[in-house]
Amino acid sequence: MQAYLIKNLKDYEGQQVTLQGWASNRRDSKGIYFIILRDGTGWCQCVVSAESVSEEVFNECKKITTETSIIITGTVTKDEKQMGGFEVQATDVQIIAVADEYPVSKKEHGVDFLMDNRHLWLRSQRQWAIMKIRNQIIFSIHQFFQKEGFIQMDAPLFTGNACEGTSNLFETDFYGDTAYLSQSGQLYGEAMAFAMGKIYTFGPTFRAEKSKTRRHLSEFWMIEPEMVFFDIFQNMDLIESFLREVVSNVLTNCKAELAMVGRDTTVLEQIIKPFPRLSYDEAVRIIKGEQDVNGQNSIKSLEDELKQVEAKMEEINKEIVEREEKIKTPGMKKGEIGFNQAKIDKLKQELKDLEEVTRNIPGWLNSARNFEYGNDFGGSDETVLTRLFDVPVMVYNWPHEVKAFYLKRDPDNSKFARGVDVLAPEGYGEIVGGGERETDTDLLIEKIKEHQLPMEAFEWYLDLRRYGSVPHAGFGLGLERLVTWICKLPHVRESIPFPRMYGRLLP
RNA sequence: UCCUUGGUAGCUCAGCUGGUUAGAGCACAUGACUGUUAAUCAUGGGGUCGCUGGUUCGAGUCCAGCCCAGGGAGCCA
């Protein structure tokens, strides 16, 4: 028996096919069953009528609960109403395993419940689409770097020391010694670049931050290219063409998936425009509202948004009251009451989200107005800045005190380090951090001491400067943050199959 | 770690200034209906009101502590 895939049904119109998968939904009337079959490549309605299958098979169909695995044979017919445009008129149905009562229903669920059922949640359409887009992004990343002559390398995950010092690391036992789970493969990438020229790492990294925000994971995947004979400007050129190509690939190859997650692609299509390059000084002026962007002021637009949200909340409140009145009118059909009740529930949820926004914006406004020159950007500062743009923004030349020890001091102004952060638009914030590396051995040693890092652990790294130092640069891209922005997800946790974050180790 | 919001049926929620036997929708089960798109309609089972203690004649409701979760800050990709 040859099995067919739902995604290819269009090639078999009028022909008989056999599909194997799971029943994601079943409806029935007298003498007819409608089964939505899911096979991993798509969804398709299969019609089982009493006339076209044996009585025995028809009676068996009663057992098909949500997520029961089945094999269906039937004829492909065109039906514009169906997703995918085709349905299958079944001639035979075979049950493989009847599923127990399935916990994930079509109704809305809370985040905690969905996360507890992540292993099942992945089967639903929206999550399926996100994972397909993630896959396309991963593929495009490899494609881009391989095409550009980069060698992929794997950095170690056990490290003997805190690489950058600042973040909290996960400790583990390594044959009696304390080892840390890697928070970056960059230093190893630099070493490899001196052997290969251009390299990129693609692997997991670990941060033990007790952060509970929409941007943080404890375990996430990072791509870290490193290029010899590169300065910060060549680095920015590379980042720009890299992100442009990945986003373009998703746009051309994942149209259906982007539609499934409800992504408005007009913003993504702006990716062909040049990315603004702002110096730290300029970015700070914009955040503080001292400089406008395309006639937009950060402070004012945030204040306007607050007003808009408040107006919207009033509107929603009005609609809720109206619908609640409507439900009470006597003689209303049960179906209509249910419809209105569902609408009210949805509006109330929306209201809760907006309330959250009104609680957050004043804090962001406050932090933007009082931003202290010389500090690193916080999450809210990135939000305030990137809300004003529709393409990624590059901020470069940072005060050297707030950045990592290995960044090159700017030759024109020693206050600055040649780091660059790429911030995703629409309020998403940092997706890339990178820069040109320090080549001055003495300055590096000084920096390592300043950051109170154990010198002996960095001797091998200093060797890279001692034996034929060259200018070089690189960057690190957070895969999940890129997926989150491209899909416009409300939280990073949906961008990875099984998120690991503070308080979440299962499933 | 801090600020903030919440925890009531398998799920999503309602439950007013404390007061009889704690409710709805969905899901599930049974039945009706030959084209449904979260199908519809009828009937039914289903609860340690997060935990512990306190106030009270009486606590889902008030108070305290703890636990868990959402959002944010710090830190970061």
- Amino- and carboxy-terminal Cα gap: 36 Å
> Portion of residues in helices?
25-40%
- Read across the widest sheet, the strand sequence of neighbours is 6-10-11-16-15-14-13-12
Number of helices: 15
Strand content: 15-25%
Number of separate strands: 16
Quaternary: single chain
Gyration radius from CA atoms, angstroms: 27 Å
User: How much is the average pLDDT?
Assistant: 89
For the biggest sheet, the summary is: 8 strands, mixed
Task: Give the helix/strand class.
Answer: alpha+beta
Brief write-up:
With 507 residues, the protein is an alpha+beta fold.
Description:
The protein has helices spanning 55-60, 111-116, 118-121, 125-147, 186-196, 232-253, 255-260, 265-268, 280-287, 298-328, 334-369, 379-386, 441-450, 459-466, 479-487; strands at 16-29, 32-38, 43-49, 69-78, 86-97, 151-153, 158-159, 171-174, 177-181, 198-206, 219-228, 277-279, 393-399, 416-424, 429-436, 472-478. It is α+β, with helices and mostly antiparallel strands and 507 residues long. The strands form 3 sheets. It has an 8-stranded mixed sheet with strand order 6-10-11-16-15-14-13-12. The radius of gyration is 27 Å and the shape is globular. It binds one RNA strand of 77 nucleotides through β1, β2, β3, α2 and β11.
